[in-house]
Prior knowledge:
Strands 3-1-4-5 form a four-stranded parallel sheet, with helices on one face. It has a two-stranded antiparallel ribbon with strand order 2-6. The protein is built from 15 helices and six strands. By secondary structure, the chain is mainly alpha-helical.
Amino acid sequence: MPHVPTSLASSWGAWAVFVSVLATQLGVPVPAAPMLILAGSLVASGESSFWPMLGAAVLAVLIADSLWFAAGRLYGRRFLNSLVRFSLSIDSTLRTARRWFERFGVPLLALSKFVPGLGLVSAPLLGTTQIDVRVFVLWDLIGATAWASFWILGGAALQEQIARLVVLVRANGATVIDILVLAGVGFILYRWVRRVQFHQWLEKYHITPDQLDAMMQSDTPPVIYDARPIDIRRKEPYRIPGAVALDLDSPGRVDQLLSEHEVVVYCVCPNEATAKSISRRLRAKGFTNVRPLKGGLDAWEKHGYPIESIPPEKPHVDTHEDSDMDDMVTIRATAPE
Length: 337
């Protein structure tokens, strides 16, 4: 039976696991799973112990998540917005996380590490709430233990295959470090390409606050939609004058009259990733005149343009029959009369 060379045990011990997991949980765009899998293979071959590896991984998660949680509690939504600037996926993940935590509560934290992107945003997002710190630490500990155990035990189960791969790599003059670095560079390159593509899309479709203000003063003002999450609209009950809330989770119809209007969508995300997603969903339904507001509501305020208070919510009554469900989308929006 092949084994991982003994020299790797000292190089990839508990400290290496700790540093790798800590870096990943702090947002460095390099996955920690390969390191945990390698640690599991060392455990299976008898060259390391399970508990130090698990303890190092769990400790790293708790430290990183505690820092994220504290930052969310101290700085609130502004801190979340700063995170969005560094990752295009965080914006949409934040919306998903809000919806899931509102529905399932803090125990969902135990599973968040298994969902790409969700593990990073859960801690700072919960920091913006009134959740007790002890409750957060308890569920974070459970989640970190389950997540680290999964990858370490998975690596132990694949010990023979991993050992053969290590021997093959070394036989060709490379090392495991080379493979991990190559994988990390490839991942970063992929994220960079995604960011470039995103900015190219924005340059083509976005609208600036100055342009929106000019359109609002014209004879044919646009239809403006507020795509902020419901909880943010409740905490910050103001909007661009005349804007209508978009409920992304409702079964309401999109009024076909929207296709006759210029539509502007905004949120509070600095890179407009959510607005872009909504714009694409509306475009897929045939509404070609949909444009995201560059910089969202924050940019509108920074330019000194007026905002207005949001009136109290009115109960929504859906009178559509179930037979019409095929024509529905998960956005409630109607054109002005």
